[in-house]
Amino acid sequence: MKTISITILFWLLSMLLLSDESQTSKTEVKCNLTAKNYSLIPANISKNVTILDLSYNQITLNITDTRVLQTYFLLSELYLIENKATILLNNSFSSLSNLEILNICRNSIHTIQQGAFTGLHKLKKLYLCQNKIVQLNPDTFLPLKNLILLNLHGNLISYFDVPQLFYLEFIILYGNPWNCSCSLLNLQNWLKTSNVTLENENITMCSYPDILKRYNIKTVPYKAECYSKFPSFVTEDLHIPFQSISNSTFNNSLNNLTRNSEHESHGKSWAFLVGVVVTVVMTSLLISIAIKCPVWYNFLLSYNHHRLEEHETETYEDGFTGNPSSPSQIPDTNSEETAVIFEQLHSFVVYDDGFIEDKYIDTHELCEEN
């Protein structure tokens, strides 16, 4: 009797195991549609599909695609690697409550709306690598209560606020242009104090500023100024009086500094004004001197000349006409030729005299005399 009961028990257990295996084999339905050049998610797939691979297509995850996805509510794994998605809309995966793995790497995603992951309560692994994500709202990850792995490598993220992912174990952040300023201090503290493992830590390097490029984001040293911007929790009884004292001392020093700066600014302004006036006056004097110099030079040159007296003029004319070629010494010349030569010489003396242009010679009077 005992042997019969034992055999019945073994038979029941074996049947249960076989039924579980058959159920698992029935529930796991794979569908591989990679590299089919699909621009939309096909709607003719079996509704019992659990693993759907649509990688290497032209899918954009538009509104039509999200509506089709709602019908595949048994999905546990979805692969959309290297497609054409640019935006993850709100409620894109809201009906996929059984989804555990979502891989959307190597797309062109630059915007993730805050409710994009709504409904993914069982999601354990999220891959958003090699996209064009610049900024992420930490509230976007709030629906992911059971997320274990988050892959964000190869994006354009320079700042990342701490997400509230209590079950997260692994995070991948390398290949981003991290700005290791004070704003990244919270992320560093979270990586150090939480149980999250930063994968590829040695190559998760700072890109800015230049002096911190040799550090990774987990070990970069921060100055005391950064810690003052993000103070640790202090009791109010100690913090408030210290803050009031520091504020009062700061205000006093600020008042003294402003007073001194006002006095110094007034003195410097007067000195600057005087210097500007002196510079302008000296420059104007130099310009006027440069302009007047030619006039004064001509005046001095003309001042050295004097008006010829009458006897000096007659003497000069007599001496000029008494040269060897005078009419008295020329043989065989008549009086008319002598008169013509005399007039030509006389006219030459009048108009070629160097003193004609002198301002002290009255040319009108000289013409009358002639």
Automatic annotation (TrEMBL):
The subunit field of the Swiss-Prot or TrEMBL record says:
Interacts with TRAF2 and TRAF6.
Gene that this sequence comes from: LRRC19
Task: Mention one GO molecular function.
Answer: signaling receptor activity
Topology within the bilayer: Single-pass type I membrane protein
**One of the GO biological process terms:** positive regulation of non-canonical NF-kappaB signal transduction
Q: Which PROSITE patterns match?
A: LRR
PANTHER family assigned to the protein according to its UniProt record, in alphabetical order = LEUCINE-RICH REPEAT-CONTAINING PROTEIN 19 (PTHR31450:SF4), LEUCINE-RICH REPEAT-CONTAINING PROTEIN 19 LRRC19 FAMILY MEMBER (PTHR31450)
Q: Which SUPFAM superfamilies match?
A: L domain-like
Lineage per the UniProt record: Eukaryota, Metazoa, Chordata, Craniata, Vertebrata
Indicate what this protein is called per its UniProt record.
Leucine-rich repeat-containing protein 19
- Region named Disordered: 314-334
Compartment(s) where it occurs, according to its Swiss-Prot or TrEMBL record: Membrane
Pfam families cross-referenced by the UniProt entry: LRR19-TM, LRR_8
Per its UniProt record, what SMART domains does this chain match? LRR_TYP (SM00369), LRRCT (SM00082)
Q: Which UniProt keywords apply?
A: Glycoprotein, Leucine-rich repeat, Membrane, Repeat, Signal, Transmembrane, Transmembrane helix
- Transmembrane residues, as ranges? 270-291
The signal peptide annotation in the UniProt record is 1-24
Q: Where is the composition biased (Polar residues)?
A: 322-334
Functional summary from the UniProt entry: Pathogen-recognition receptor which mediates the activation of TRAF2- and TRAF6 NF-kappa-B signaling pathways and induces the expression of pro-inflammatory cytokines. In kidney, prevents infection by uropathogenic bacteria by inducing the production of cytokines, chemokines and antimicrobial substances. In gut, involved in host-microbiota interactions, plays a critical role in promoting the recruitment of immune cells and intestinal inflammation.
UniProt xrefs under Gene3D superfamilies: Ribonuclease Inhibitor
InterPro entries assigned: Cys-rich_flank_reg_C, Leu-rich_rpt, Leu-rich_rpt_typical-subtyp, LRR_dom_sf
